[in-house]
Write a structure and sequence with these properties.
- This protein has a 5-stranded parallel beta sheet, sandwiched between helices.
- The longest helix has 14 residues, at 19-32.
- It has one domain (6-110): DsrEFH-like (Hypothetical Protein Ychn, Chain: A, 3-Layer(aba) Sandwich).
- The mean pLDDT is 87.
- By secondary structure, the protein is of the alpha/beta class.
- Helices cover 35% and strands 25% of the residues.
């Protein structure tokens, strides 16, 4: 990573059309506009439904994903769906999430905790 770059990890746990998810989308677009931001969005819990809908454009303002990586919790995905994630999303693990969180300069969380 470049010395003056900034890693942003965004954890999304809320249902797709919730206010929290919409705020997370705005944060992704805001982080993308930074000069050297590397953005990772990790979908967990109810948010994995985003990967079923394949709504990358909603997260990028209609532009290419570019420097944004969209990861989906594999365990949460498998509990809800019996198919592959949509193009642009990739399955990941909570172990990888925590590694990314350790290395991130900023971690933002959107959505319910513990099913609340």
């Amino acid at each position: 990573m470049h010395e003056d770059s900034h890693n942003v990890l965004i954890l999304v746990r809320s249902a797709p059309d919730s206010a929290a998810t919409q705020q997370a989308r705005r944060e992704v677009q805001k982080a993308r506009s930074g000069f050297r931001h590397e953005v990772v969005v990790f979908f967990h819990g109810d948010a994995v439904a985003e990967a079923a809908a394949g709504r990358i454009a909603d997260w990028t303002g209609g532009e290419e994903a570019g420097s944004v990586k969209f990861l989906v919790c594999q365990a949460a995905w498998k509990r809800r769906f019996d198919r592959s994630v949509a193009t642009g999303f990739e399955l990941s693990s909570l172990v990888q999430f925590w590694q990314l969180a350790i290395d991130a300069d900023q971690v933002l969380t959107f959505g319910a905790r513990h099913g609340k």
